[in-house]
Amino acid sequence: MRQNIRDLLPVECFRRGTLWIGGQWCCATDGGAFAVTSPIDGQHLMVASRAQAVDADRAVRAADAVAASWASDSGKRTGLLLRIAQEIRKHAQELGTIETLDSGRPISETTTDSVQHAAELFGYYAGLADKLHGSTVPMGNDATALVEREPFGVIGAISAWNYPLLNAATKIAPIIACGNTIVLKPAEQSPLVTLLLGALMQQAGLPDGVVNIITGFGAEAGAPLVTHPMVSKISFTGSMLTGRRVAAAAGEALKGVILELGGKSPLIVFDDADLPRAASAAVFSTFKNAGQTCTSCARVLVARPLMDQFARLCGSIAAELRIGDPFDPETQVGPLISAEQLTRVRRLTADVDAWHACQKHYRPVEGGHFFPPMIVTKHALDSDFARQEIFGPVMALRPFDTDEEAWQLANDTEYGLAASVWTSSLRRAERARRSLVSGIVWINCAHTLSNGTPIGGHKASGLGIEHGVEAAEQYMKVKTSVIMSGGWHSPFSTRSASP
């Protein structure tokens, strides 16, 4: 049953504002606000505070005020992160319901997989919080180097709209586990589940100011966060275009960035593949979350003799997908996030030779941003459709004749986030690992990851790593101290001054 958002979020969000700064709910300094609507049917959900530069500054200063105390006790951090994981599991229904209302993801996923994954992330980094030690380097001559890891201080984070709870957890958990504090700006399209997460973290006992949340738009709140002199590092998930702007602004201030910028990922089906499983993987990868997944392998390359058979197989699987109201527990594909995204997907698919695979159970909700899932069989390699990340429920099939052509087509994109390869040949699998310019290569699987699996893109898909020990290491700076127990002598010879 669909609930009113007022029954799910803290009442203070509606009374005082949706900015979570220093453990208090407050409104934007100038009183600015914006409407948050549901992509399911256009329903008005609530009015959110519209943060400006002055509000970003308030949040950064609140984070900086507690940075030293939070960094001082890794043992305390472990217990707190575990309690946050417990609170997430305890409030799975509320978190999932808000995420479905706000992002349109099916309730069957948001109250189960999404919540479980978010809780597991906090649990994983709780286990790392007191284990991120430094090292010693013997140098000889009575000298030893101590290599220590220290928190950066305040981290600025900007998350995407497609998996709002998981995206927030992916930022917050490793950042605070490493002893940093954070100011997080969730995407303006789906900010609400992050607000409940903030309240739950306070219930778990997280000290005020360790996590701060500001709602608003990129140019008004995100950009000032990136350039703020008290912010030591930036973590951003979003489009390639915006990511380049974030990197340029951060580079001007000589601060580090972690960027997850999406992809145009291939799924390659060779002539010795398990076709039913490969087709099932292609359909799942393409249409999961209505195609709004950065690692979606919707660019499907198929050995030419199998092309027609594989297209029919994908079509028959996709035809059984249920598209419609995400609050229906049977729904597998919901709406796109916004009217703007719907317009963009329509534009990119306007001139392709395609057939709709999912009309059988296509039940859009009036006023919602629904797009019927599509399988495209012919398209020009130099078209916007072929080159740009669509971020919609669209599968593009293309044949190849040789292994070399498969690798060439797979790599013929400015992105390099993920790839899925289907073959029974160990030799081909090894060749795929070496040949594909991609941060993730799945062999005979897709979207198979764990909290300990590092995720990072090559080329224009980003910089740095999310998840795993590798992500935690990026949120700590290295300090080397050299200690000499014996006497140190200058290599310059000393001479007595002439009389």
What would your notes on this structure say?
The chain has 17 helices and 22 strands. It has 499 residues and is an alpha/beta fold. The protein is 38% helix and 21% strand. The mean pLDDT is 95. It is globular.
Layout of secondary structure:
Elements (H helix, E strand, L loop, with lengths): L10 H6 L2 E3 L2 E3 L6 E5 L6 E6 L3 H13 L1 H5 L2 H17 L1 H12 L3 H22 L6 E6 L2 E9 L2 E5 L5 H14 L3 E5 L6 H12 L7 E3 L4 H10 L3 E7 L2 H13 L3 E5 L5 E4 L5 H13 L11 E5 L3 H12 L4 E2 L14 H10 L4 E4 L5 E2 L10 E5 L5 H4 L6 E7 L2 H9 L6 E5 L3 H10 L4 E4 L18 E2 L4 H7 L1 E9 L15
Parallel strand pairs: 7-8, 7-10, 8-9, 10-11, 12-13, 12-19, 13-18, 14-16, 17-18, 19-20
Antiparallel strand pairs: 1-2, 3-4, 5-6, 6-22, 11-21, 15-17
A few lines on this structure:
This protein has 499 residues and is of the alpha/beta class. Helices cover 38% and strands 21% of the residues. It is built from 17 helices and 22 strands.
Count the strands? Answer: 22
N-to-C terminal Cα separation, in Å? 98 Å
Question: Given the helix and strand composition, which structural class is it?
Answer: alpha/beta
Helix count equals 17
Average pLDDT: 95
Shape: globular
Notable features of this structure?
about 500 residues, alpha/beta, 7-stranded mixed beta sheet, 6-stranded mixed beta sheet, about 40% helix
